[in-house]
Structures are given as structure tokens and as C-alpha cells.
């Protein structure tokens, strides 16, 4: 079993990313910044223990994308750190990294033996392992990102996000910003938590076409047929670069990767295309987190980021478990409760036409009211 037990500690305002095997913890005073923003990694402090820093131990098991995926793993870890910072001296947090799916069950079991106050598992692929562990250990509190149970489990906070809603806004925006009449999206794996973004994006483009009598095409996905392009995982940046280069060669000028760390390969392809063209003719939308924070080196290509409030949801789950208010059940993040949002435009604030911004604001209100229902075949 190949696993890494890691945490981060604060040094000035920079969070250090643990890169070596060993154990460490984070407690109050730790930077809330995700490891994705770190310029250089550092080994964890020698000799620290999981119980020394706080009375309540929050534990997290990553998916195979790793703690520094600039996506749902790093966002979840940031939420863990924020919980520790919110309860000085009371909460400490730690994580185990999964190198493959075979690590999920052993990592969860290891944390059960450590008597963690809550075990947070990250990613749709850990749904079955988390359920098995939760049923076998009913006194143990869990949370899982991107998976729900029917019926709900009393000892699991299941945290999911209706990203068809902000994906719809992202698709509408992409169509409005496209100069070639072609935009593109691709996923890491064909999982509901991936394709719900792509469904919303596709549907948003279709809505733009109907409103503007346009014919913007979506490469890489079709909501009606549920067929499209996938990189085969969330770690192979080379695959993301190759897929994106193909989209660019086919005329797409706004790319939306829903593939975690693979999206960095897409950004590299966009950067290369920009260098060849000599101007920002190809741009992107990032996923899960604000890319201008988590992948700042590519910020100038990000029109926006189609995000979900993983940090806030994970933080709330940990604080609830630590504070005695944990109830379990299913949470759904929406535009109405700010569980899903479009990130700020950053470098594109002056480039997105005011009329398009006004349309997006109106559409957001209509989605919240229910007068627009983004199409998706994926459960929220």
C-alpha cells in the first residue's frame, strides 16, 4: 500500500506543500491558502504528531489527483485548513494521499483507527468505500465531496453541487466571447460530477444560440447523446494538452476542461497557441476553483472559472463535527445558496462586454427563480 500521511503548516503567509512521506498536522494559524498556490514544496516538520496540535482531529483522504491538483482535492484541503484556523487550539487537520483507487479503503481504515473526529473523503470514486466504512463504523463521522446517498446516511455529510447551473452561465459566456463560433469542453472521466458541468456548459451555449440567432458549436460534448471527449483520468497533463491542441486546430477559441490537474495541460496548449499567434486569440474557463488563484500562471487566459464552494462546505462539515452540530445527510450547492458561482473575470473584466455581463446576471436570476432549468442527465 502506497500512501502518504501529510499536512501543512504556516510559514509567514505561504502554505507549505508537504512532498515527502511522513506525518504532520495543521492547526490554528495555518494559512488558508491551498497548496496549489505554493511556488515550491517543503517536507513536513519532523517529529510533529496528529494529536499534538488540537483536541479535535479532522482527517482527509485525497483522490488520485493529489493534494495539489488545483481542483477538488486542493479545494477540500483548503476547507480543512480554514476549519482549523477558525477554531484556534481546538482543531487540527491532516490528510492521506491516494496514489491509486486501491488506497481508498486502507486510507479510510487507517484514519478510523486514529479516531478522527471526522473523515472527509474527496471525489465520486470514493463513494462506495466511504459508504462501506460508514456502515461498518456508525459512530464515526464522515463527509464526502461529490457523492450523495439515497437514502441519506446519518453519519455522512454528503456534499454535492448543482454545477449544471454555473456551467450553463459558463457556456453562455463562452459562446458570447467566441470569435470563431466554436467552443470546446472535455472531461477527465465520464462521471456524473464531471458531465454535469459539461451538460450545463453545452446547454448554456444552446441558449445563447437561441437568444442571439447564432450557431456556436460545442466540440467535445453533446448533452443529448452524452457522448464526448475524456482524458481518461485527472493527472495526465500531456493528454489535456493533446486534446486541447486538437480542439484549437478544429477552430475552438474557448476551452473548458473539467479534468482537475489535466486542465494544466490544456492551459499549456492555450499558452503555446497564444505564443504562436502573438495575441490572446484562444482562451479558457477553469473548473472547480478560481483558476486565477489556483493556477495563477495562466490567469491571463481565464475568462472566468466555473466553480463550486467546496472550501466552505468542507469547512462547515468539519466545524459541525467539532462543535457537536453534525447531522449528516445530503447538501446541494446551488446558485441560490452560493454553492456554485462564476468567479470574477480578473483580466477579462474590461473585455467581457457590459451587455453580455447584464445578460448573465439576468440569466442567473432566472435560474435561481426556476424559470430557466439547465438541462442535465447527471444527478446533482
Key traits:
alpha/beta, Rossmann fold, 7-stranded mixed sheet, disordered N terminus
Give a description of the structure.
This protein has ten helices and 17 strands. The strands form four sheets. Strands 1-5-4-6-7-8-16 form a seven-stranded mixed beta sheet, sandwiched between helices. With 380 residues, it is α/β, with parallel strands linked by helices. It has helices spanning 72-86, 104-113, 127-136, 163-177, 192-212, 237-249, 263-277, 291-294, 310-323, 354-369; strands spanning 3-6, 10-11, 14-15, 56-61, 91-98, 118-122, 142-145, 156-161, 182-187, 217-219, 221-222, 227-228, 254-258, 283-288, 302-308, 329-333, 340-342. Helix 6 packs across helix 7 (263-277). The protein folds into two domains: 3-161 and 310-333, Response regulator (Rossmann fold), CATH 3.40.50.2300; 163-307 and 350-369, Rossmann fold, CATH 3.40.50.
Could you give a quick summary of the protein structure above?
This protein folds into two domains: 3-161 and 310-333, Rossmann fold, CATH 3.40.50; 163-307 and 350-369, Rossmann fold (3-Layer(aba) Sandwich). Helices cover 35% and strands 20% of the residues. The chain has helices spanning 72-86, 104-113, 127-136, 163-177, 192-212, 237-249, 263-277, 291-294, 310-323, 354-369, and strands at residues 3-6, 10-11, 14-15, 56-61, 91-98, 118-122, 142-145, 156-161, 182-187, 217-219, 221-222, 227-228, 254-258, 283-288, 302-308, 329-333, 340-342.
Low-confidence stretches: 1-52
Number of helices: 10
The backbone outline, from C-alpha atoms, is globular
Helix content: 25-40%
Number of strands: 17
Distance between the termini: 33 Å
> Structural class from helices and strands?
alpha/beta
